[in-house]
Each structure stands twice: as C-alpha cells, then as structure tokens.
Amino acid sequence: xxRAFSLAVIMLSVLxxxxxxxxxxxxxxxxxxDLANDLVLLEDGSILxxxxxxxxxxxxxxxxxxxxxxxxxxxxxxxxLWSRTFGGSDSDAAEAIAETRDxxxxxxxxxxxxxxxxxxxxxxxxxxxxxxxxxxxxLWEKTFGGSGQDHxxxxxxRLLGNAIVAGYTRSVDEDVQGHVWGEDFWxxxxxxxxxxxxxxxxxxxxxxxxxxxxxxxxxxxxxLSVGYTAYKDVGxxxxxxxxxxxxxxxxxxxxxxxxxxxxxxxxxxxxxxxxSEDTIIIVGEQNAGVSMFSSGLGGKDFYVxxxxxxxxxxxxxxxxxxxxxxxRVVQPFGNGHFxxxxxxxxxxxxxxxxxxxxxxxxxxxxxxxELVESLSVGGSADDFIxxxxxxxxxxxxxxxxxxxxxxxxSNKGGKDIWxxxxxx
Length: 424
Known about the structure:
Blueprint: E1 8-11, E2 21-28, E3 34-41, E4 47-53, E5 69-74, E6 80-86, E7 92-99, E8 105-111, E9 126-132, E10 138-144, E11 150-157, E12 163-169, E13 184-190, E14 196-202, E15 208-217, E16 223-232, E17 240-250, E18 256-262, E19 267-276, E20 279-287, E21 301-308, E22 313-319, E23 325-334, E24 337-344, E25 359-365, E26 371-377, E27 383-391, E28 394-401, E29 416-423
Antiparallel strand pairs: 1-2, 2-29, 3-4, 4-5, 5-6, 7-8, 8-9, 9-10, 11-12, 12-13, 13-14, 15-16, 16-17, 17-18, 19-20, 20-21, 21-22, 23-24, 24-25, 25-26, 27-28, 28-29
C-alpha cells in the first residue's frame, strides 16, 4: 500500500510480559517539531491525532506560522489516510480532540494568531475551537476568552451534542464571567454550532492559580475536570508555596458540587482522571523527593490518588525511580486493575527496563495500588507518552519521539509525532 507520508512503522516482536505486549510503533514528522498531544480511536479502528507542528518540510510541509494544529488520520495499522493543518501566522497549539455524535470532530487548544483560519484572537492567547468533517473539511472555528490569556486543554461531548471545553483563563472581561484571581479553571459549554451556552469559572481560594487539564463526562451528564490548584504567597514572597492536584465536579444540573485538592506539602499535579464503579482515580505527578517525611522515590514520581465519589481520599501511592516520572494517562485494564502511562528518566526502583534518556513508561496496578507490571517503550533518546485511549484489548498512546532506534528508524528532525499500540 502506498503511504501518504514517509513513515517509520514497524511490527515489534512480542515482549516477555504477561500483561502487556507492544504491537506497533510509529513516527512521522518534518524538519521542525511535530507532536501529538491527544488522539481519538474510532469504531472502525482508525485514529486521529492532534497537536502542534513547526515543520515546513517533510511530512508536515504546510505550516502556516510559528506553530499550527496538525490533524492526522490513520488506519489501525498506522497507514496515513489524510492530514490537515489549521492555524495562522502566529502560535497555535492543539491540546485535545474529540469525535462528535454527528460523525465530525472538534479540536481545541490555544491560538495567538489573528489571521488565516482564525477569525479573531487576542495576542496573549484564546481558546480556539475548530470543528471539521470526517474528511477533514473545516466546518467552523471560534475563539473564546478575554483580554488576558486563555488556554483550552481538553474537550468532550455531552449526550445532547453540546461540547464541553476545559482549560484556564486569566481574563476578567469579554466572554469570561466570574474570574477570581490569576488562573482559574474555565469550563465552557458550546452548542454543536459553536455558540457559547454556559460556563463555569472555578477558583479554590483567593490568590490561587487553578488549571484544568483533563475532562471526563459521565453518562449521567456529570463533568469531572482534573488539574492543579496552587497557592501563591502574594503578601510576602510572591512564590508558589503549595501546589496540589485538583478535581472539580459539576453535576448534571450544572452546579459545581465539589472542588477538592489532593496532596500535601509537595508539588502535586493532576493529568488524567477515570471512574471505576464508585471510585475516582486521578493520576499525575508528585515532586516529594526522598525523605523520612514523604513517600517519594526521588525527583518526580507517578502520583496516583483514589477517592470516593464524595471526594474523600481512599489511598495515594507513588511509582517510579530516583529521577523524573510523570503519569499522563489512566485507563481501565479489567478485573479491577488499571493502566497508567507517562514518561520517565529513572532507571531503578520500579523502572526495570530503561531504554534511553526519557522513555515512555507503562504500568499495571491493582485496585489496591499494588504494582503488577512495568514496561518501558521507545529508543535511546527522548520518548514521551502524553495521551492515550483504549478499546477492548487494545491500548494506543501518542506523544513525541526524538529517537532513531528502538523500532523508530530515523528521526526526521526535532520532535516527531509518536504512536504506540499495546495488546493484552
């Protein structure tokens, strides 16, 4: 089959792990930086990724500005079906993609561009939301925000077809209502045609910085959003003196039913969230170090928190080694287990098979937190898992790679979009 891009796709041999096995690895890009921040898996097994590109040659030769939104559609074997690039003359970075009930797609992120595909924007940054057809035709685009900086980080869809977009705002005017101080969680609800229908601006306490990273929308219509809340000591040092993982829950009536933080005296950050029966699982990072006062393993660790639906913490555990380990993805794995994926620079403790400078790292843990399996993926340079999805017995992750080995052949230049699939 003729490929649309010059790809590095390879079928990898099955590794000797009882739970998870690498199926395919894939990389593509140009001479600049190409990165996949998110992906969606369709019913027919095809995949769409979204992120940013600075390349003007190679696989992404249509860059319009400093950075653009690249959207790539592939089949289940990572054969590229088509690609599109959206953006303007300045910086545009896509953070998330979602399929809509009418068979189209929504991509969200941040734009600083005032031209080309963008109708209008604030140079400090706005939410940019685009909707396109299954063939990649742009249907509409909208910017949202105010005179400050606004950045969309995730998108999902409610049962009636309205889109939920989450991120943060520093604006006190225009589209933004209820801003408190600094960065606030800003969660918006859009009609299928892009009109702003509702919004929630959430701040833990005065002088807090709050950023919403990921969304989960339940079948009952609840909205869960995870990120961080950080207290800034304005009166004395103007430094952040506390940062904790944060979880906001908006009920199906549109009421913010809770906003809780998790962590202690160290840096904690939430990157993804899932629900297993009546338990909420949050994953991210904790920078606790090694001491008699913490459970830290060294540097930053995979940080996993389980909480009841009322927000009360059940247990918290750290995973990793003596360097940097950051969890970006959590997915169910069956039998009460769940899969956590991200990236690591560690080569010890829980990390048993290091490959390079920065590896994708995937672990399986039981419902009580017991570590079952550990797998490093990538090559000898930097390989980052940033997002992931699952379906039946398959798991697909995306991010970026700078490696030219480990099944990734030759690097195209800078960062390349990287995908990897696992099977049970």
